[in-house]
Write a structure and sequence with these properties.
Arc Repressor Mutant, subunit A, 230 residues, 5-stranded parallel beta sheet, 4-stranded antiparallel beta sheet, Rossmann fold
Length: 230
């Protein structure tokens, strides 16, 4: 079965460009010109990934991302204008997996799409060993069901946040460079923007902190990356 991608952009030329290249790469494509339609198609069309422009009518891209993350962990790659630095950061903090800026390289975008889908498909097939991973405090990762437990409570993480926590906890005490996290968690085999890592870490820290103060800390190692200290 073909993987399905939802393209959300109000510019016909961009939609046509993306649709042409995605279909050429053998993806099924859904198209939405505004945020309202994007939310409808995300519910009814069950996309495997969403390409989401932030500057769209009806409901803007940030609000679309915010709404989706209430109920879905579908991968989201934001498409932003070059000057929208604040919006990119906010989008990442809301739970987007990655972003590209306009004008973008179609080749790079396709590589990012493949990397994200490859990571999701690999996890769905259960490539992660089947067992429980115990962390400090009451933290426990159930790799079969891909859930994180803190005591009897389930921590609500996106796919990306789960993968990131698993990788950090599996390497507890070791400093993991941002570039390595991009490669092993995001699945990129090329140089990517490490701001996606920083935003995902920020979200993960906040969720862990709310769950329990006894879990441990994700420490920033200046100029290098992150380390999980339990």
């Amino acid at each position: 079965m073909k993987q399905r991608i939802l393209v959300v952009d109000d510019e016909p030329a961009v939609r046509d460009l993306l649709t042409y290249n995605l279909r050429k790469a053998d993806y099924e494509v859904l198209v939405a010109p505004d945020g309202q339609e994007a939310l409808r198609l995300s519910r009814e069309g069950s996309p495997d990934l969403i390409l989401l422009d932030l500057m769209i009518p009806e409901v803007d891209g940030l609000d679309v991302c915010r709404e989706l993350r209430k109920t879905s962990d579908v991968p989201i790659i934001m498409i932003t204008a070059r000057g929208e630095e604040i919006d990119r950061v906010v989008g990442l903090e809301l739970g987007a997996d990655d972003y590209v800026t306009k004008p973008f390289s179609v080749r790079e975008l396709m590589a990012r799409i493949k990397a994200v889908l490859r990571r999701v498909e690999s996890n769905d097939k259960g490539s992660v060993p089947s067992s429980l991973l115990h962390g400090p405090g009451d933290l426990q990762i159930d790799l079969d069901s891909r859930t994180v437990l803190v005591g009897d409570a389930t921590l609500n993480l996106t796919r990306l946040e789960f993968d990131l926590l698993y990788h950090l906890l599996s390497n507890a005490g070791r400093v993991l460079p941002r570039e390595r996290l991009l490669e092993q968690v995001w699945g990129y085999d090329f140089a990517g923007d490490t701001r996606a890592v920083d935003s995902a870490i920020k979200r993960l820290r906040a969720k862990l902190r709310v769950a329990s103060e006894d879990i441990g800390a994700i420490e920033s190692v200046r100029g290098v990356g992150y380390r999980f200290n339990g």
